[in-house]
Design brief:
single chain, mainly alpha, 65% helix, 0% strand, globular
Length: 125
């Protein structure tokens, strides 16, 4: 996922796509990155630094939070939900799924289904 894709029409995360669909696409791209780079993720996890303070985490969290607000979530709900969505996608979760020989497509489908379910939850809390 590149920053410019957020502003490019025709991109799955571009401005012409509904906010809820953009959230799902961002998460799908994040999942693909994690599935394709297990060594990089393992090194990141073993570094001992705080993920929540990492510039890439802050950026993706901000993107998701803003998209969730556009999709109708209140500000506090969007803030929390963005962390929840990102927290459900640590590299070790994906390595575990691969260890169980879960096919990539099935893993992606479950992630999309979960994100869509969260996006349809009531946003008044």
């Amino acid at each position: 996922m590149r920053r410019e894709d957020l502003h490019r029409a025709g991109s799955p995360i571009g401005p012409d796509v509904p906010a809820a669909d953009r959230v799902v696409s961002v998460l799908e791209q994040l999942l693909n990155f994690k599935l394709e780079n297990p060594g990089l993720l393992a090194a990141r996890e073993m570094s001992g630094t705080s993920l929540l303070a990492a510039p890439h985490y802050v950026w993706v969290h901000t993107v998701l939070r803003d998209l969730l607000e556009q999709a109708g979530f209140r500000a506090q709900s969007a803030e929390y939900t963005a962390h929840l969505l990102l927290g459900g996608a640590p590299g070790r979760t994906h390595r575990h799924a691969q260890g169980l020989r879960m096919f990539r497509g099935r893993h992606q489908a479950r992630a999309r289904e979960t994100a869509r379910r969260i996006l349809t939850m009531p946003t008044d809390t």
